From TrEMBL:
Biological process per Gene Ontology, one example term: fatty acid metabolic process
AMP-binding enzyme C-terminal domain segment(s): 459-533
CDD domains: ttLC_FACS_AlkK_like
NCBIfam families given in the database record: PRK06187.1, PRK07008.1
Protein name per UniProt: Long-chain-fatty-acid--CoA ligase
Family classification: Belongs to the ATP-dependent AMP-binding enzyme family.
A Pfam cross-reference name: AMP-binding
Species: Caballeronia humi
């Protein structure tokens, strides 16, 4: 007799490979379309993808890769990268996605710290591999994501003098027959390794498990999360080298959606054309990418014929962008928040039945926030004395989260980042009575004026809502009386005539008087991190000696 204490259901581990197997078996002929770095469009199906992922697993085993070994990837969004996702994790190794936009030294640090056994790379990154390989002596070999001839093309210029072997992915994969069963193992086994962008100090690794990856995929696919469906054609602009492209490579096979990969061409025209030709209904990306796409569409005077929804996150989605997508192009925007340490999804701004009874303005105000948690994430805001703050939409404090897809500790670091079992996000936010969270700042970016906090994101959003402003950042400038006051650094649109005083006057009536910035400077461009976020640390360095007008007057 079995004990009635335990349920009597099958004990099937939650493994990443099951996502692809499900798609291959139940949506076998659904397409995966990729714009390749070779320049052409490649198409095949989930069935083909699983076969090649299995061939890759066999090839890795033949190379001596063992369960638990890390396999790095330096690659754009494409079918071979997807095969790496599943081929590595499926055989029990760890897929370590590396952000190629980081500085070469940081990339070398990450590869060395992760102890990657092999690194798969798109040929566009051959010059980068050439630079970093000498700093990564533990790597046994570099696998070029192409056939032997594409390595040959680069050999003279790059890759010729490398100590470690350079192998052709296609040669390795096509040498195998794909007759391979995905092994079953403990669902707590490590699956993916993603490093944070590390604006300060060295990047830190978040090591996901198969269990967290599959639970996150379920959560991501829910109707009030990304709401992915087998009727969707999904184009993730968000890169697969940054937090698993927000889980889309897992959620899409889970629901059987068509996948469209843009490769390296992320300019407005290329994205628009691919969306149109592949009937894309759903996309996801950071605001900077959408800015480029919207600019292109305006200039070219074109419209979307199939795109219905897009997830925007990674940085605050400016309300002006949300309005343009929805009012001018009829595309629903889903504002989302998360972080590498959270796999990454935490909250999405999708309205409840109750919220949908309110006026259009109130509904939009809610949708401009970062939104409601999905099951799998709990959150709280905490004040300076560690006390939990009320959910009244006004009190703002440090945001803490917990859940089965939130990290417990960083890879290869002993000390736990948790506080009483909660992970401190480093973000500052409010939560309203609907449970909608609103990020006001990163804790280190918040502006402290006379002991009160001013939200730099709110002030940036107002600046970019001005028709002549393309992009804006708000940083703290030191002030002898108030400690800090807000300074706006703005990039104007071409042919703009906007002056400093006109932009400052634009704040009148939009925020409390003491929130109005003290000064505006115009710049040609703003610095961004490797993941497209504003680099405020760099901006604060640039404008460290900026003297605010009232301070200058008093000094005279
Ligand atoms: P990363 O780990 O690189 O994905 O960065 C995570 C951080 O990006 C978060 O802690 C936030 O500071 C910021 N972030 C992500 N999404 C949003 C959003 N929708 N609004 C504001 N900040 C965001």
């Amino acid at each position: 007799m079995t004990s009635p204490l335990y349920g009597q259901m099958m004990d099937v581990p939650l493994l990443a490979s099951s996502l692809l197997s499900h798609a291959a078996r139940h949506f076998g002929d659904t397409e995966i379309v990729s714009r390749r770095i070779e320049g052409d469009i490649h198409r095949y199906t989930y069935r083909d993808c699983e076969k090649r992922a299995k061939q890759l697993a066999q090839a890795l085993i033949a190379l001596g890769v063992e369960p638990g070994d890390r396999i790095g990837t330096l690659a754009w969004n494409g079918y071979r990268h997807l095969e790496c996702y599943y081929g590595t994790t499926g055989m029990g190794a760890v897929c370590h996605t590396i952000n190629p936009r980081l500085f070469p030294d940081q990339i070398a640090f990450i590869i060395d710290h992760a102890d990657d056994a092999y690194v798969c790379f798109d040929m566009t990154f051959a010059p980068l591999v050439d630079i970093i390989a000498p700093q990564c002596p533990k790597v046994k070999g570099w696998i070029a994501l192409g056939d032997a001839s594409c390595i040959g093309e680069h050999l003279g210029q790059y890759l010729g003098n490398m100590e470690q072997p350079v192998l052709s992915y296609e040669t390795l994969v096509t040498a195998q027959d794909g007759n391979y069963e995905w092994p079953q193992f403990d669902e707590r086994t490590a699956s993916f390794l993603c490093y944070t962008s590390g604006t300060t100090g060295n990047p830190k690794g978040a090591l996901y498990s198969h269990r967290s990856t599959v639970l996150h995929a379920y959560g991501a696919a829910l109707p009030d999360a990304m709401g992915a469906s087998s009727s969707d054609s999904i184009l993730p602009v968000v890169p697969m080298f940054h937090v698993n492209a927000w889980g889309i490579p897992h959620a899409a096979p889970l629901v059987g959606a068509k996948l469209v990969f843009p490769g390296k061409d992320l300019d407005g025209k290329s994205l628009y054309e691919l969306m149109e030709s592949e009937g894309v209904t759903y996309s996801a990306g950071v605001p900077t990418v959408w800015l480029a796409l919207l600019n292109y569409m305006k200039q070219a005077d074109v419209r979307f014929s199939t795109l219905k929804r897009t997830v925007i996150g990674g940085s605050a989605c400016p309300p002006a962008m949300l309005r343009t997508f929805e009012d001018d192009y009829g595309v629903e925007v889903i504002h989302a928040w998360g972080m590498t340490e959270m796999s990454p999804l935490g909250t999405l701004a999708r309205l409840s039945w109750k919220q949908k009874q309110r006026s259009p303005d109130e509904q939009r105000a809610s949708r401009e926030k970062q939104g409601h948690v999905i099951f799998g994430v709990d959150m709280k805001i905490v004040g300076e004395e560690g006390q939990e703050l009320p959910w009244d939409g006004r009190a703002f404090g440090d945001l803490y989260v917990r859940g089965p897809w939130v990290i417990d500790r960083y890879f290869r670091r002993d000390e736990s980042p948790l506080v009483d079992g909660w992970f401190p996000t480093g973000d500052v936010s409010t939560i309203d009575a609907d449970g909608f969270m609103h990020i006001t700042d990163r804790s280190k970016d918040v502006i402290k004026s006379g002991g009160e906090w001013i939200s730099s994101i709110d002030l940036e959003n107002i600046a970019v809502s001005h028709p002549q402003v393309a992009e804006a950042a708000c940083i703290a400038c030191s002030h002898p009386k108030w400690t800090e006051r807000p300074l706006i650094v703005a990039v104007l649109r071409p042919d703009a005539t906007l002056t400093r005083d006109e932009l400052l006057a634009y704040y009148d009536g939009k925020v409390a008087k003491w929130w109005v910035p003290d000064d505006v400077v115009f710049a040609d461009e703003l610095p961004h991190t490797a993941t497209g976020k504003l680099q405020k640390l760099r901006l604060r360095e640039i404008y460290r000696n900026h003297v605010l007008p009232d301070v200058a007057e008093k000094a005279v």
